[in-house]
């Protein structure tokens, strides 16, 4: 019995050891920033630039570590971590934010905005301001910036697409969120939810007939090996959200908060420029690799816009769209 | 992370089930990092459990178990005996061939080694093969099973590294046959030196081989169907897994008519248990891997190795030595789960073909199942045949040597791996 | 008590088997329907959802039968009694971890009630999250029974030694 007691004591001691965090806490702030894109994507370099600028301005007090290719985990998992106050950040989109505040989904609907200039206007709008506030107060997301624009999304397939009917019966990969699925369905295709990383094998195995992505996704994923046409449907101008935890954000000194936000906006604007420059290079490169581009002028955009209206109705954001378009003086 | 690794080994040596050892030691990392939400260790296994790509694994396990009840196994044994029974070492040669045949329907080395030990082991010993030698042949030949498609190890690697599973599967065919050849040569040499008798008097006639071949045709065309399914683009790997189960049922019910409801339930039950053991390990080891990425350990190891060399062959040498040593203590599945994220990026930096790397990596990890003191396939066989570890070590080293030589051959001749995938899927 | 434990074991295995069959059917029909260019978009996500539950139930089934892989070459060299103590220590550590999974698993499920299960509209992710705490509850019951068995063994040996 004596033996047993001694043994129990030892066990308890070990358990106690386990429960005590062993590493010393340092006062330096670290943000682990995750994105799903490849290290070759202009965004990765953009995030590294942002990290460098923030580290310099805070004299090393706030450090950002960038993780590419979803190394830190699945996007949806990271978002939930952010809600719980972790020092992680994520590059995400309106469709995912719409899972929390449904109205935001409007930003991810077909033909909602036509240019980066219109996106810049968005941030000043009272409606948008309210969304950000709800995200922060109710769900714990701090949106640092949405000046990061990834370019226009186009359908990429193995046959030319000129009008919505051409998409009929085609299985097009989309992210799994309802907003994406409904938008793509409205435009005439059959959405198939597949993770970003599985796109290449799915195309290779013909589990899907095409994708809808931006030009800059093509080289990193070697899509020219498995797809023939880029149809410039410009159906969504992809606005990205850089989000961190509101709780973590509040724990930063106010000067750091300001620097983090400012530099994020700044890096976003620069990266957007790079993105559009790079698209031109990519266009040249993929044509050399044998892809065919169906330019916007050959596409019945009006028909696509009309078809896209359905997404607003299904997602019940038509009224929101009308309101914002009115505020923007857009028809 | 050092603390995590220390506790992992402590818990393992204390005999805690590996799944808990790896999960609990991995969990310690989160206690050291209060800035990460404490719910993360719950999210991580869940994310693996709902990962559609990994669904291929339980489906392949189920298909393999069903196959054992369809009568396929029995026919494959007959075929193996007819093919090589006249050679010296008899049943040791049979197990080399049989594993290659079984490789086409099953994906796990451990399951195959255990099954063959039960079916062939006692007979091998009765016919005069030393116990340790029989165990060695049974254990090492099971390496052919995860090399020849389908393969659980390759699905895991392909999912983590995002490499086409179809290509990996196609890439496994020649290496599997190569390993078989090397092992058969080893048996031939050792059998001559030690004067083991053959199983049957003389070589089987062409007619005998032909009829035995036709009887086993349902199993032999199986890997062909598998790769055609993946190549034809009809199915994703998980769907091919489901197709395999349906195929096994079809063969069992309509072709051989040996599968009845009772067998079916038994196979299902066995599969559920196997899946519980395998998938829980895959799910919960995700807790452990998280800290590895968080602390950027892949980058640290990568810059360390790239600091030593930029030569792919030297890298392969370091990799194989490391994996063999790690394999003494850690089993294949865990090795693949922990180390793919570390070594795959280095291989890419060095310009190595992802499929070539995948095959070498998975095969070298699989050897960890065979080497003492920790090896699941070795345990299974030695327990069934009642072989002591000393006997096993003394008798099995020629097989280890043969397998290592096979891996080195594959390193120096990448086309052995890449020829078939390039042929089927294009460059 | 034993009886309930055994019935529980039968139920969990039965559920795991049924889920396994459903997974095969779902994944197979998803593949077939897609080949026929008419995909059932919810079949694969639903299969993944079942998979989460099946794994946890099957894990406990394997644990009950001591089929979870472990390494015992070192422990086996100790005398029986020490082996028992080590086992009890292991089970206590496991139990503590499982209790953590139960408590925080329920909490995580609650936190994630807004999250949609990828590919299935209007279906909360929470239902998948719950597989971890529920599975852990089954595992912790098994662990408790194993602890009791081990203590009984110890007692028996002591009696045999005394008599
Ligand atoms: Na064998
Ligand atoms: Na195999």
From TrEMBL, chain A:
Identify the Pfam families for this entry.
DctP
Q: Which InterPro entries match?
A: DctP_fam, TRAP_DctP, TRAP_DctP_sf
For this UniProt record, the keywords arranged alphabetically read as follows: Signal
What protein is this chain from?
A: C4-dicarboxylate transporter, periplasmic C4-dicarboxylate-binding protein
PANTHER family, sorted: C4-DICARBOXYLATE-BINDING PROTEIN, PTHR33376
Record bears the keyword Hydrolase = no
Any one GO biological process: transmembrane transport
Q: Does the keyword Metal-binding apply?
A: no
Task: Fetch the NCBIfam families from UniProt.
Answer: dctP, TRAP_S1
**Highest taxon listed in the record's lineage:** Bacteria
Q: Please provide one cellular component term from the Gene Ontology annotations of this protein.
A: outer membrane-bounded periplasmic space
TrEMBL record, chain B:
Signal peptide positions are: none
Q: Name one GO cellular component term.
A: plasma membrane
Q: Which UniProt keywords apply?
A: Cell inner membrane, Cell membrane, Membrane, Transmembrane, Transmembrane helix
| Pfam families referenced in this protein's UniProt entry, alphabetically | DctM
Compartments annotated for it: namely: Cell inner membrane
Q: Does the keyword Cell wall biogenesis/degradation apply?
A: no
Q: What is its main location?
A: membrane
Membrane topology field: Multi-pass membrane protein
Q: Which NCBIfam families match?
A: dctM (TIGR00786)
Please state what the protein is called. Answer: TRAP transporter large permease
Give the source species: Dictyoglomus thermophilum
Species classification: Bacteria, Pseudomonadati, Dictyoglomota, Dictyoglomia, Dictyoglomales
From TrEMBL, chain C:
Q: Which residues form the Tripartite ATP-independent periplasmic transporters DctQ component domain?
A: 23-151
In terms of superkingdom, the source organism counts as: Bacteria
The record's keywords, sorted A to Z, are:
Cell inner membrane, Cell membrane, Membrane, Transmembrane, Transmembrane helix, Transport
Residues in coiled coil? none
**Biological source species:** Dictyoglomus thermophilum (strain ATCC 35947 / DSM 3960 / H-6-12)
Q: Which regions span the lipid bilayer? A: 12-30, 42-63, 84-105, 125-148
Its recorded name reads C4-dicarboxylate transporter, small permease protein
* A Pfam cross-reference name: DctQ
Annotated Gene Ontology cellular component terms = plasma membrane
- Keyword Nucleotide-binding set for record: no
What GO molecular function terms would the record report?
Answer: transmembrane transporter activity
GO BP terms: namely: C4-dicarboxylate transport
User: Which membrane topology term applies here?
Assistant: Multi-pass membrane protein
Q: According to its UniProt record, which protein family does this protein belong to?
A: Belongs to the TRAP transporter small permease family.
Q: What is its main location?
A: membrane
Organism phylogeny: Bacteria, Pseudomonadati, Dictyoglomota, Dictyoglomia, Dictyoglomales
Subcellular location(s) per record: Cell inner membrane
């Amino acid at each position: 019995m004596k033996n047993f007691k001694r043994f129990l004591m030892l066990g308890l001691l070990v358990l106690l050891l386990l429960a005590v965090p062993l590493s010393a806490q340092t006062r330096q702030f670290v943000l682990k920033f995750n994105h799903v894109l490849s290290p070759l994507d202009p965004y990765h370099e953009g995030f590294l630039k942002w990290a460098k600028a923030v580290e310099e301005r805070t004299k090393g007090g706030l450090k950002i570590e960038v993780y590419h290719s979803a190394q830190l985990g699945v996007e949806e998992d990271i978002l939930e971590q952010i809600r719980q106050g972790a020092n992680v950040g994520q590059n995400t989109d309106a469709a995912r934010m719409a899972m929390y505040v449904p109205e935001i989904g409007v930003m991810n609907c077909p033909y909602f905005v036509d240019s980066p200039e219109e996106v810049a206007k968005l941030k000043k709008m009272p409606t948008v301001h309210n969304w950000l506030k709800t995200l922060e107060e109710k769900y714990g997301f701090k949106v640092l910036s949405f000046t990061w624009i990834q370019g226009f999304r186009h359908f990429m397939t193995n046959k030319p697409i000129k009008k919505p009917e051409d998409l009929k019966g085609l299985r097009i990969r989309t992210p799994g969120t309802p907003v994406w699925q409904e938008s793509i369905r409205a435009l005439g295709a059959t959405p198939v939810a597949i993770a970003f990383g599985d796109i290449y094998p799915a195309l290779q195995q013909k589990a899907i007939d095409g994708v809808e992505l931006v030009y800059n996704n093509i080289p990193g994923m070697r899509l020219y090996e498995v797809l023939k046409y880029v149809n410039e449907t410009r159906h969504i101008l992809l606005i990205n959200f850089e989000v961190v935890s509101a709780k973590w954000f509040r724990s930063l000194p106010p000067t750091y908060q300001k620097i983090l936000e400012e530099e994020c906006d700044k890096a976003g604007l620069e990266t957007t420029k790079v993105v559009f420059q790079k698209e031109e290079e990519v266009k040249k490169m993929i044509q050399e690799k044998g892809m065919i581009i169906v330019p916007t002028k050959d596409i019945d955009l009006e028909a696509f816009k009309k078809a896209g209206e359905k997404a607003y109705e299904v997602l019940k954001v038509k009224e929101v769209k009308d309101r914002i378009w009115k505020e923007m003086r857009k028809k | 992370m050092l603390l995590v690794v220390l506790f992992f080994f402590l818990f393992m040596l204390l005999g805690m089930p590996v799944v808990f050892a790896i999960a609990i030691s991995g969990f310690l990392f989160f206690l050291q990092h209060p800035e990460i939400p404490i719910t993360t260790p719950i999210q991580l296994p869940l994310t693996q459990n709902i990962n559609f790509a990994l669904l291929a694994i339980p489906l392949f396990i189920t298909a393999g178990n069903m196959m054992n009840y369809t009568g396929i196994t029995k026919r494959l044994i007959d075929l193996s005996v007819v093919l090589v029974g006249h050679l010296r070492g008899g049943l040791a040669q049979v197990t080399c061939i049989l594993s290659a045949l079984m490789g086409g329907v099953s994906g796990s080395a451990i399951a195959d080694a255990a099954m063959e030990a039960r079916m062939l082991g006692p007979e091998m010993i009765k016919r005069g093969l030393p116990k340790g030698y029989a165990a060695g042949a049974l254990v090492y030949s099971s390496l052919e099973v995860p090399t020849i498609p389908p393969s659980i190890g390759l699905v895991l690697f392909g999912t983590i590294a995002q490499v086409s599973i179809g290509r990996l599967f196609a890439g496994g065919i020649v290496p599997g046959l190569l390993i078989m050849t090397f092992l058969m040569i080893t048996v031939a040499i050792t059998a001559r030196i030690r004067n083991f008798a053959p199983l049957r008097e003389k070589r089987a006639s062409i007619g005998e081989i032909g009829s035995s071949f036709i009887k086993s045709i349902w199993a032999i065309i199986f890997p062909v169907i598998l790769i055609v399914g993946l190549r034809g683009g009809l199915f994703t790997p998980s769907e091919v897994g489901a197709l395999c189960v349906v195929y096994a049922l079809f063969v069992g019910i309509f072709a051989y008519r040996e599968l009845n409801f009772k067998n079916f339930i038994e196979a299902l039950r066995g599969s559920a248990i196997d899946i519980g053991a395998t998938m829980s390990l895959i799910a919960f080891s995700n807790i452990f891997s998280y800290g590895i990425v968080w602390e950027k350990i892949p980058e640290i190891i990568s810059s360390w190795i790239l600091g030593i060399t930029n030569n792919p062959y030297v890298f392969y040498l370091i990799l194989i030595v490391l994996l063999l040593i790690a394999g003494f203590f850690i089993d294949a599945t865990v090795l693949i789960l922990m180390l793919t994220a570390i070594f795959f990026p280095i291989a890419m930096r060095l310009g190595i073909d992802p499929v070539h790397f995948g095959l070498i990596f998975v095969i070298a990890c699989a050897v960890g199942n065979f080497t003492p003191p920790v090896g699941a396939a070795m345990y299974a066989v030695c327990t069934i045949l009642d072989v002591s570890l000393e006997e096993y070590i003394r008798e099995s080293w020629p097989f280890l040597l043969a397998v290592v030589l096979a891996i080195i051959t594959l390193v120096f001749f990448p086309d052995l791996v890449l020829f078939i995938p390039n042929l089927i899927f294009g460059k | 008590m034993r009886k309930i434990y055994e019935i529980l074991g039968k139920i969990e295995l039965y559920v795991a088997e049924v889920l396994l069959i459903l997974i095969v059917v779902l994944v197979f029909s998803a593949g077939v329907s897609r080949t026929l260019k008419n995909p059932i978009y919810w079949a694969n996500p639903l299969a993944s959802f079942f998979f989460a539950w099946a794994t946890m139930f099957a894990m406990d089934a394997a644990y009950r039968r001591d089929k979870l892989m472990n390494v015992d070459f070192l422990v086996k060299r100790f005398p029986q009694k020490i082996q028992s103590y080590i086992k009890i220590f292991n089970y206590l550590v496991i139990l503590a971890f499982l209790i953590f999974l139960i408590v925080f698993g329920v909490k995580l499920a609650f936190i994630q009630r807004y999250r949609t299960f990828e590919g299935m509209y209007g279906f909360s992710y929470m239902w998948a999250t719950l597989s971890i705490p529920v599975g852990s509850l089954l595992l912790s019951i098994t662990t408790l029974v194993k602890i009791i068995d081990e203590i009984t063994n110890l007692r028996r040996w002591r009696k045999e030694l005394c008599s």
